[in-house]
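My current task is to audit a protein record that another person submitted. I have pasted the whole thing underneath without changing anything:
***
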Amino acid sequence: MQLLRVAWALAGAAICCFVVLLIHSRLLKEGQLAAGTCEIVMLDRDSSQPRRTIARQTARCACKKGQIAGTTRAMPACVDASIVRTKQWCEMVPCLEDEGCDLLINKSGWTCTQPGGRVKTTTAL
């Protein structure tokens, strides 16, 4: 009797998982992102110069209304559009937790300074 209950519970769980996957596949077509999320589609690193690495990254985002693609904790993210419009880049919290953020003088980007003194500079296009 107890074995029968376990079998019915497993069958019910399997059907439930199938229904959830079916609904998910109907809502999100292949290649479509969920609202408020981003993914990196291209990453290029150039280390040809000593002590300097140039990295270029392209991200694809599906941002909600009032948001735009930006950077949070060194990863692509949807951020408030006013941050990008006013070029107050550090309000996105683009640096890692232990790094300090500073705006470039011409507001074309920001720098993230690590505790050891290493500086990462990011410019926005």
Observations:
- The longest strand covers residues 37-46.
